[in-house]
Amino acid sequence: MARITKAPEERRQEILDTAMKVFYEKGYEKTSISDIAREMNVAQGLCYRYFSSKEELFDTALDQYAQRQVGQMCRMLDPSMPLKELIGQMPTFLEVEQDGSYAEKLCHDSGSVKFHNQLSLKICAKLQPIVADLLTAAKKRGEIRLKDPETAASFCVYGQLGILLDQSIPAEERVRRSRGFLLEWIEGIS
């Protein structure tokens, strides 16, 4: 059998995609690097060339999925829009997490609370500086009075997790509550 040579980034992505598939199908705990290599029909050492452990591989794949979700949210935003309009039109998790990927299936299945929570924290970490920039821009336009946009952004982003992760509340209601609170908060600092 001839050896197939691929560009490093292509091979790395293939390992990430295959890993999420195998994690989803077998379960994270039951999956080993050798299972991923076997699924790819490559030597186990190839996977270790790119990732030092299963944990690093999973963390990288989860980070990539979080970045994809944040990217989708940001593509739909116009940073020059007034803050109140922006909050009213900002995309929600309901609109961006439905991509059909194995990462989505793994993180959003009913038994995946641990992975979903990890994903949520990664998304928050990526959104916080974006929201800080939006708040800073709104402050410069005179829309809001705010001393510390960085801290406010952390509260805006991470503060929603209590509502957004509460599965006892219907998804649309969680979005309505979060958006309503943000609009009320913006009104208070205007």
Uncertain segments of ≥5 residues (pLDDT<50)? none
Mean pLDDT: 90
Please report the distance between the alpha carbons of the first and last residues. 68 Å
Q: Biggest sheet: strands, sense, closure? A: none
In total, the number of strands is 0
Given helix and strand content, the structural type is mainly alpha
Percent helix, as a range, is over 70%
Q: What would you call the shape?
A: elongated
Beta-strand percentage? under 5%
Pfam family, one: TetR_N
GO molecular function: DNA binding
Keywords: DNA-binding
Protein name: TetR/AcrR family transcriptional regulator
3D structure, described in words:
- InterPro entries: Homeodomain-like_sf, HTH-type_Tx_Regulator, HTH_TetR.
- Residues 9-69 form the HTH tetR-type domain.
- Residues 32-51 bind DNA.
- It holds the Pfam family TetR_N.
- By secondary structure, the protein is mainly alpha-helical.
- Helix content is 71%, strand content 0%.
- It contains 11 helices and no strands.
- The chain has helices spanning 8-26, 33-40, 44-50, 54-75, 83-89, 93-96, 102-108, 113-140, 149-158, 161-164, 171-188.
- The chain is elongated.
- The termini are far apart.
List the helices and strands and how they pair.
Elements: H1 8-26, H2 33-40, H3 44-50, H4 54-75, H5 83-89, H6 93-96, H7 102-108, H8 113-140, H9 149-158, H10 161-164, H11 171-188
Helix pairs in contact: 1-2, 1-4, 1-7, 2-3, 4-8, 5-11, 8-9
Pfam family, one: TetR_N
Protein name: TetR/AcrR family transcriptional regulator
DNA-binding region: 32-51
